[in-house]
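Here is this case:
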Amino acid sequence: MIRTSLSYSAALLLGASILTACDSTPRERQEAVRQEARNLDSLADRAADKLRIAGRRAARFDSVSRARNREPLDKTTSGTFAQQLMGTYADIETLTPTTIEPAYVQLLRQTRAQRRQWTQRDWDYATGIYKRLNEQLRSIRLDLKGRNELRIRALQAEFTALETSRDVKDLGQAIEE
């Protein structure tokens, strides 16, 4: 029943457009096509302009990020940041196979709690701490139990996801400005 009514409606629309086409001359139809082509060209030009602007903004964002990454992290600020994020695990180079997993848990707990207020530079400091933690993990990995390493890998994936989501958010904001 529905098919019949849809087919009937489609036939009515087709018939109406044929009748309308019969009421116009080929020259009028040709002009209507030209006008629609001009409209499409205008839309394409506006879209190309927006894309060009977004590309420039993305390049500017990338340039600023690269310049920021070239600046060395301040050791005092890094130490303060490590103390805030890591608490009792702040002395990363002394972590053992039994204390490294709780250190990752502490890092992620603090990252989850503070990430919304962080600037890109704060993320640079957090990433620096994360890299130091990963270096310590590499040095003691052979003495680590498999289940602990598996949990650490999950925490590493979460940290990376949080950092990447912030980068994507900031890039999106930079493009839309």
User: Anything to note?
Assistant: The chain has two domains: 20-71, 74-176. Helices lie at 2-22, 26-70, 75-86, 100-114, 120-140, 146-176.
